[in-house]
Amino acid sequence: MNKRKIIIAIADGIGDRPISQLEGKTPLEYAETPNLDFLASEGINGIMDLISPGIPVGTDMGHMILFGYSKAAYPGRGPIEALGVGAEIQPGDIILRSNFATLVYEGEEKIIKDRRAGRIRERTQELALALQGIELNNGIRGFLIPATEHRAVLILRGENLSASITDSDPKENGGKLKKVYSIDNSMESMNTAAALNEYLEKCHEILENHPINIERKEMGLLPANYIITRGSGKMNEIEKISQKLMLKGACIAGEGTVLGIAKIAGFIPMSNELFTGNIDSDINLKAQMTLEASKENDIVYVHFKAPDLFGHDNKPLEKVKAIEKFDKLIGKILKDIDSDTYLAVAADHSTPCEVEEHSGDPVPIAIYGPSLRKDWINKFDEISCAHGGMGRLKGNEFIDYLHSLINKVKKEGA
Amino acid sequence: MNKRKIIIAIADGIGDRPISQLEGKTPLEYAETPNLDFLASEGINGIMDLISPGIPVGTDMGHMILFGYSKAAYPGRGPIEALGVGAEIQPGDIILRSNFATLVYEGEEKIIKDRRAGRIRERTQELALALQGIELNNGIRGFLIPATEHRAVLILRGENLSASITDSDPKENGGKLKKVYSIDNSMESMNTAAALNEYLEKCHEILENHPINIERKEMGLLPANYIITRGSGKMNEIEKISQKLMLKGACIAGEGTVLGIAKIAGFIPMSNELFTGNIDSDINLKAQMTLEASKENDIVYVHFKAPDLFGHDNKPLEKVKAIEKFDKLIGKILKDIDSDTYLAVAADHSTPCEVEEHSGDPVPIAIYGPSLRKDWINKFDEISCAHGGMGRLKGNEFIDYLHSLINKVKKEGA
After folding, report:
1. Which distant-in-sequence residues (6+ apart) come within 8 Å of A218 by Cβ?
2. Which ipTM did the prediction report?
3. Is the CB of A372 inside 8 Å of chain B's CB atoms?
C-alpha cells in the first residue's frame, strides 16, 4: 500500500433547507454539481454534526473541529479574533475584543458618546501604531491590533495575568465609561485590571492629541480617542495537531479566521489576495495551490466561503451559483488528484437561507479515494447523503476516520 | 414470552475494503455466504465501531467491549498477555512483559548480549519452574510464566506495590543492562523497584547454573541466563460482567487472549485443541459446544479467528475461504438453534488486506431471532449492513442492545 494523503474541501455553510423558490429543493439539490455527484457516486457518504445534532457552531468552532480539535480546545472569541487579524499571540496573553470609541466629559463624568467613534473606517492602523507595546506597571505591556472598521483586538502580555476582569464597554452610546475591575479578587485579576486601566488611560492621552483625531475634529467627525474593551480571554497553550499526530498539513483559504486556526493546529496557512470570500474567488489558483500543497503534506484543507455568505443574506439563487462554483473547484482538484490521495468534502456548518444564520442542521459529507467502501448513494446533497454508508457522524468522528485512512490513529489495545 | 438467550458469533477481523483481485468487492461481499445472508435478510443489520469511528482496536480491546466492558476497563497489555498464557493473576499484582535474555560481563559491565537468548524456543517451561514464588524482602514474591519462544510474563505479588517503575530491558542487543528505578519516587514504587531488582538477580544466579543453560553453552548456544523486563502494569480489580448483570455466560474459542478476557468477564472459557485459529479449526465441534453451552447459559460467545489471520497476511482469496468456513459455522448453529435464542454476528475489528493491520473501519453486525424489527437488507456485508436498520452503533451500544433483548438492562427512571 502506497503512502496515502488527504485533501479536504470545505464548503462554508453549504447545508440548507428546502426553499419554495427552488422548487422545494435545497440550494445544493437544485445546483448542477456533476463533480460532487461523481464523488458521491464513487465514494462513501454521510451527514455530520460538528459537535452534536441541533448544536449550531461558528465558523471558528467548526474549523477547530475540522482541523482535529475537540470542542473543549476552543480558546474563546478574543484569541480567535486576534488570530483572524493576524496577531502573534502567545500562551498566557490576555486578549480582549475592543473598539475605537469617542469619549467626552460631562462635568467630571466620562461618557462614551459613540461606541464606534462615528464608525471610523480609515487610518485606524496609524492610530494603533501609536499604542504599541506601551510599558505598564509590573513589566506588563499592551498591544492594540486593528481589525475591520472601529474594531480592534487588545493584548496584555506579562506575568501573573488573569482574564477574570469586567468590561469597560458601557454597551450603549451615551453610557458612562466603566472602570475595569477584578471579578474574583485574585491577585492576578487585580493586577490585570490595574494594568488595563493604566493602559486605557495612556492610550487616551496619546489618542486625544493624535494628529488624525485633531483632523477628524476639524472635519466635524467624532474623534477615536478611547479604547473600550469586552470579552476578556486568556490564550492557553494549545497543542498543535500537526505535532500530536505527526501530521504535515496546509490550509488554503482567504479568511483570516480560518487561516489563524490552521496556524494553531500547526498547518501552514496559504493565502492569496485573489481569494475574496465571495463567488469571484479564484478557484483555478485555489485548486492549483491545493494540489501543489498535497505533494508536500499529509493533509490539505481548501476552504470556500461564498455559500455561507448567501445563506446569511437569504439569497438562494446566489447560493446555488456559489455551490456550482465550489463544484468546479472540486472538478479541478479531481482532474489532477493523485490516485493515493483521498478527496473529502465537508462543511463547517449549515447556513439555511430562511434562518440567515448558522443552524443546528447536519452537513453532508463524502469521501472519494482508494479502496473505500462505496455506498449506494449517487448524489451529493443533504437528503441523499443522509442515507449514505457513513451514517451520521460527529465532527470528531469524521476527522478520526479520515486520519485513520492515512494511518494516523493509534490502535487501542494490542 | 419465554426466557430469551443469546449466541454471539465473532468473526475476528472480518471487515475489509474493496479489493481489485476480488472484482472490486470486499472478501465478505465476494464470499458465498448463504447462512449469513439468510441471517441478514431475516434479521436486523447495522455497522459498529468498537470504540468510535476511525479508532482501530486490538483483539483484546475489541473483546473487552464485546464482552460488555467500557474502554476504560482495559487493564493494559501486561495483564492481558498474562491472561493469554493462562496465568492466575490477582488484583494488586504487578505484571511485566519480559524476555529470557543472555547476559555477559565486559569487565564490571553487565551487557545484554542477546535480548532473546538466541531466540530460545524449548524448555523455557523448565527454566521458569526454577523461578517460581521466590520470596523477596517485605514478603513480596515473584513468578515467571513462560509464553511463546523467549517471551514470558513476570508477576510480583505482595503489599504496597506500584507499576510506576522503569524498564530493565536495554531495548537493543549489546546494550547495558538497566537497573529498575522508581519513576515517581513513591514509597510503593521504590519498594517495587527494589524487589524486582532483587528478584532478577536471584533469577540470574539460578539460571546461570541451571543444567539447561550449561547444556546450551556446551552446544554453542546462548544461555537464557537473565530476565529483562518492560511495560509494567498493575492488575486492578475488574468487576465480572457476569456478576454485574447476573448473566451466565460461556466463551468457545481457541485463542488464549480471548479465553483470558472471557474469564475476566466471568464467562466460562471452553476450548479444545482442535480450535486451531486457522481455516482448519473444527467448526462442527465449535457449533456443537456452542449449542450445548447455550442450554446452560444466557449468553454464549463463539470465536472464529481465521479471517483476521488472512487480513494480516494480505491474502484476499484465503480470507474469502475463511469467511465461507465461518458461514458454515453459522449454518450449523442456525440449524439447531432454539427458537427463543438470538443469533448475533459481529467482529472485534476490521483487518483490511491492504492495510495488513486492524483499521478504523466499522464492522458489519446482524441479529437474527424472535420478534426483531427485520429491516430491508438481505445480504451480510460491509456495504449492505451500512444501510441497515440498526444504523451505526458503538460497541457498547450494540452490546447494551443485545443485553436488553434478554432483559438484562435496568430501566433508567421509573
Report:
1. none
2. 0.85
3. yes
